[in-house]
Amino acid sequence: MSIELSLERIAKALENITETFSSAVFIPTVTPTVTIETPVATPVAATPVPTVVPVAAIPTPPVAVPTAGVSAPVAAPVVPVIDPSCPITDAKTLMDVMMGVYKELGPEKGAKIQDILLSVGCKAVNEVTADKYAAIWAGIQALKA
Predict the structure, then answer these.
(1) What is the DSSP string of 79-139?
(2) What letter would DSSP give residue 68?
(3) Residue 101's closest CA among 77, 129, 125?
(4) C-alpha–C-alpha distance, residues 102 and 105, integer Å
């Protein structure tokens, strides 16, 4: 059996189906059958309602409710206090000052610069923020004395 012969048979079958459906009129013959059962109420014995003893109300503390249009106070941004005697103004200057002090004091006393960093909450020089420059400068001055 060749493909051409199979295709011919399929084409003829499709033509027959098309003719059958186009000439026939289909009318559905479905009759709805709905049965509704009415539930029958069964008598239930009445149960006694338990007696409730009133309990004294527990007072609650008043809750502050914000009013419309009033917002909560917002903290002002932290502005570093600049000590006029402090030469440290940025990270590069901080590094230069610390290296100079280390060289000036030598390895024994210069190693205490790490203690100054730890006292302001930093483990390394690159963690120091601008608001800590004055405290570090004060620590360096105390170390030099």
Answers:
(1) -PPPPTT----SHHHHHHHHHHHHHHHHHHHHTTHHHHHHHTT-SSGGG--GGGHHHHHHH
(2) T
(3) 125
(4) 5
For residues 79 and 59, which has the higher predicted lDDT (pLDDT)? 59
Q: Give the burial class of 25: count Cβ atoms within 10 A of its Cβ; 0-12 exposed, 13-18 middle, 19 or more buried.
A: exposed
CA 115 to chain centre: 38
What's the rounded Cα separation, in Å, for the pair 133 and 46? 83
- What would the two tokens of residue 131 be? 């608001």
pLDDT digits (tens, 9 = 90+) for 68-80: 665 666 666 655 5
**How confident is the model at residue 121, as a pLDDT?**
93
Compute the distance between CA of residue 114 and CA of residue 93 in angstroms, rounded to an integer. Answer: 17
**Residue 53 DSSP label:** -
How crowded is residue 133: how many other Cβ atoms within 10 Å of its Cβ? 24
Tokens of 18: 């098309």
Report CA-CA distances (Å) from 121 to 22, 59, 91, 116, 135.
90, 46, 16, 9, 11
